[in-house]
Write a sequence for this structure.
């Protein structure tokens, strides 16, 4: 077993492949929300966000975490691989079909929830998106469960590129919510075809391996995780439904922009977590708790190195960040965005792989989330007509922080971690100190020159765009120059402080130096132009 493990790519190398793919996807997908707010009215932006809120939540909840069982059974039970794949595919197909039938037969369900006739009209189309999205979502998981990180990365990039091109084309050409939904349908239909072709290649004739007893065992394994996902969605997204019910679609657009989750946050976390889940399952099977603890702390340190400075920088530049990306029409979203950011540092805690490896931990976390969701629903129900948008997001962030801390405590118990292991967190403390120190340096520059710098960059952007015969975009280009300048100031101060106090992992530092040396060798070998 050890030899086979050693043949697998390291955690870092696999994470890098997935991170590369998701960064590429992030770069492609970033354009969509920026164009949506510029080509759709604020009312339609709210409808668009509500439609895809329903679809995204359904894709998370309805599969009941069944796809995630692939990480367990495709590694631990090779004889059942074909049956496991068939069970996942069949279950996802049926759950998606059920969602479509509900929205097709009872479209008023969405209209009543969001107080919107437009959502009632769009309900059947949203049902088709949910059906295809649920079915095709297993593509990335199937590749990663077999630790085929490069292939998984290729799937991510290709599907994201297709999605971005079609949906952006729909926004720019047709400028309607309907067109965006139709584009999503085409994307997920193509992804479904690719999924079936891949599974047939890896597991020939998998559809013939019907095994009902194994299905029951596989489903029993996923129940705690499915309930956990259901409760997590309830904890993180139930507020959107209460806000949508209590406020207009235009006001929901303001709120949802303030709740904007940077794709970078999710892609970093998922890139590390998706590789750690099968690795943690294997280490738990071998009862190597010490190695699991060290791996968790290392992953947390790597995420904290990015999340801590990102938190500080965005808190400082929240107003410029929101108005640059989403136009000055959404300036009111900045205050909501700042409150939402307080949950960011805790996303560096990589505990999900541990709770998946220990069913007892999953059960404990499940009970915690049940309590949180019950309290949240009660508070939001009481708050209808009483709470404003800031109060709503503050309650949500408080619940996320509480849940993250409890999950960390449960994970520490599973790994028998005690006070004697606190020394492992020393590098994370150094990262926090470097991020805070860089913020102090940047605040001084921001307070002294932010207004003048923004005016200067917008003026430069106007002249450049005018020379290119372009009438629009100066605020966006100028805002990007402003944010880029302050990112350079903050980033330089942060890296200097991080190196000075030893917050950079020595292995990561050596990898970067090797890359720099290779680049310098490559540059020296390139023939110079005469």
């Amino acid at each position: 077993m050890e030899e086979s493990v050693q043949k697998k790519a390291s955690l870092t190398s696999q994470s890098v492949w997935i991170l590369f793919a998701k960064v590429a996807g992030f770069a492609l997908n970033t354009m969509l929300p920026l164009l949506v707010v510029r080509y759709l009215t604020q009312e339609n932006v709210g409808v668009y966000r509500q439609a895809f809120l329903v679809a995204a939540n359904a894709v998370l909840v309805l599969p009941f975490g069944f796809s995630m069982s692939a990480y367990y059974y495709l590694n631990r039970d090779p004889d059942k691989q074909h049956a496991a794949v068939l069970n996942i595919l069949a279950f996802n197909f049926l759950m998606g079909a059920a969602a479509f039938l509900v929205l097709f037969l009872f479209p008023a369900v969405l209209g009543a929830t969001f107080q919107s006739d437009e959502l009632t009209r769009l309900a059947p189309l949203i049902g088709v998106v949910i059906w295809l999205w649920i079915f095709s979502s297993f593509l990335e998981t199937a590749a990663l469960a077999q630790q085929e990180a490069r292939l998984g990365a290729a799937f991510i990039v290709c599907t994201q590129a297709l999605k971005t091109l079609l949906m952006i084309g729909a926004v720019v050409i047709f400028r309607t919510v309907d067109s965006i939904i139709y584009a999503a349908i085409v994307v997920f239909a193509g992804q479904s075809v690719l999924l079936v072709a891949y599974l047939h290649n890896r597991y020939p004739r998998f559809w013939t391996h019907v095994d009902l007893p194994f299905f029951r065992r596989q489903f029993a394994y996923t129940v705690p995780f499915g309930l956990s996902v259901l409760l997590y969605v309830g904890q993180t997204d139930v507020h959107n439904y209460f806000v949508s019910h209590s406020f207009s679609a235009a006001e929901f657009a303001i709120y949802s922009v303030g709740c904007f989750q940077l794709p970078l946050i999710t892609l970093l976390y998922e890139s590390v977590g998706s590789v750690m889940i099968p690795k943690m399952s294997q280490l738990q099977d071998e009862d190597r708790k010490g190695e699991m603890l060290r791996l968790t702390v290392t992953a947390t340190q790597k995420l904290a190195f990015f999340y801590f400075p990102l938190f500080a920088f965005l808190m400082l530049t929240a107003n410029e960040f929101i108005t640059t990306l989403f136009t000055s029409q959404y300036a009111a979203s900045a205050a909501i965005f700042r409150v939402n950011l307080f949950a960011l540092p805790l996303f560096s805690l990589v505990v999900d792989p541990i709770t998946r490896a220990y069913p007892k931990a999953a059960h404990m976390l499940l009970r915690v989330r049940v309590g949180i969701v019950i309290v949240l629903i009660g508070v939001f129900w009481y708050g209808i007509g009483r709470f404003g948008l800031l109060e709503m997001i503050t309650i949500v962030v408080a619940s996320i922080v509480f849940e993250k801390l409890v999950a960390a405590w449960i994970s520490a118990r599973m790994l028998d971690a005690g006070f004697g292991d606190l020394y492992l967190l020393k590098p994370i403390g150094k990262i926090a100190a470097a991020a805070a120190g860089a913020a102090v340096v940047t605040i001084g520059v921001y307070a002294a020159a932010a207004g003048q710098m923004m005016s200067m960059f917008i003026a430069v952007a106007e002249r450049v765009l005018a020379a290119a015969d372009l009438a629009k975009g100066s605020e966006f280009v100028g805002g990007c120059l402003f944010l880029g300048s302050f990112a350079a100031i903050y980033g330089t101060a942060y890296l200097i402080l991080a190196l000075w106090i030893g917050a950079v992992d020595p292995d990561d530092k050596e990898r970067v130096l090797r890359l720099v040396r290779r680049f310098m060798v490559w540059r020296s070998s390139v023939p110079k132009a005469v």
